[in-house]
Amino acid sequence: MTAMEVTTINVERTIASDANTIFLIDCLGERDKQSARTRHEEICDTLIAQSTQNITHDISHVHHELCRHRGDWSAAMSKIRDTCKKGMLPLVFIDGHGDVQKGLAMPSGDFIGWQEYGQDLRAITDTAHGELTVIAGFCYSFAFVKTVAKVAEKLPFAFYFGYKDEVRTADVEDETRIIYKSLINDGGKSLRYDELQISSYDEFDHALEVVGPVVFMQLAPDALRVGLPQFSKAKFRKELEKHLAQQGRPLGEMREIVKQVLNNTPRIAERLIESCMHDTTRRSRFKEHILSQMEKAGLPG
What we know:
CATH architecture of the largest domain: 3-Layer(aba) Sandwich
Structural class: alpha/beta
Helix content: 40-55%
Number of strands: 9
Order of helices and strands: HEHEHEEEEHEHEHEHHHHHH
Strand content: 5-15%
Oligomer: single chain
């Protein structure tokens, strides 16, 4: 067993962002089973059942938005943004039909393409200061993730659930019920991903993909050089020097600066985390855990 196999990055994770309002975006046709309407009723019933003399759950913050046309979709996205401007943080369910290439279908026959879909989610995330969880209950909804998981760029959401392939309506109903009940009851602690068809991708996944190689420069440099040579310090130094040469910068003067940069991997990690995660307490905790592990690894044994 190599050092790479036994060296891990340990971080505290959550499965969803903070939320105090729920939107059910209903892009189902009249002949479809009305899953979104049923979920709206079930969520309201669940919240009412949990209300006590001391705690009352306001079901007016649970919104069911019908989207039959592109204009309905735009109006629903605008309503979510306006709600976020008032300090509310959204949990968004999206029901409908999807196409792996075209995006989310409207009952009218139009499609909300993945680019537009992402722009709308990003606008909500920005307005909600990085707090958006999306549960996309339609076929191929996870195809969207591949279009936005770009290095050193923030995601247009904090947490995203979706389906990689076709999925039965009954399974969507069952799984979204499991998810929302877990979120309402214990913040998602009881949720077991391995029991669900739905896939997930979030800021933690994204940040670890971006910053992981830099962290392993500090935690396990030998294993990184053997297992992932493209991410070794030598490879980074070569690429950086190549970039400087293309810019006409004299390497003789820059080599010492390059060396200093590569010897300060915690600072590189910090900058990468800030570039790929939204500015939330979640990012602060993640950064604290990562830098703490790197600091410990850098101490003399």
